[in-house]
Write a structure and sequence with these properties.
Length: 132
């Protein structure tokens, strides 16, 4: 399966949870049609392929209101690996209370969305998990 195919299956799976949304973050540098200037697209170098929110209900002792947690999913094929700046971005998301990790399948993405809030574990994949 291509990275685009995996990405599309992840977007569908995350939306199906009805607790989260994931949007494509196309990044890159492009020339305008007339070639007169460069335009930077996306959130910047190293940011994840998919960006979104995960609903989290604050427990009754915390007033009982919902909050949205920032979601960052770096999509990779079975053989693909994250670049250093991508790993740094994911670590920054997690250390600031968001949910971030690498997903190689829709199942991986569902695991990210369903993980516990404030977990100290940056979810990478079965072969690479690191405590922050």
């Amino acid at each position: 399966m291509s990275e685009t195919d995996i990405q599309n299956s992840i977007r569908i799976a995350v939306s199906a949870t009805q607790r989260a949304m994931a949007l494509r973050n196309n990044t890159g540098l492009f020339l305008t049609l007339d070639g007169s200037r460069k335009v930077q697209a996306g959130l910047g170098k190293g940011t994840s392929d998919l960006i979104g929110l995960v609903e989290h209900v604050i427990r009754p002792e915390d007033v009982g209101r919902k909050v949205g947690l920032f979601l960052a999913i770096e999509v990779k094929t079975a053989a693909g690996g994250a670049r250093a700046e991508q790993k740094l971005f994911l670590k920054a998301v997690v250390t600031r209370g968001g949910i971030g990790g690498i997903a190689r399948s829709a199942s991986d993405a569902e695991s990210l969305v369903n993980k516990l809030w404030n977990s100290e574990c940056l979810w990478i994949d079965d072969s690479e998990k690191s405590r922050l």
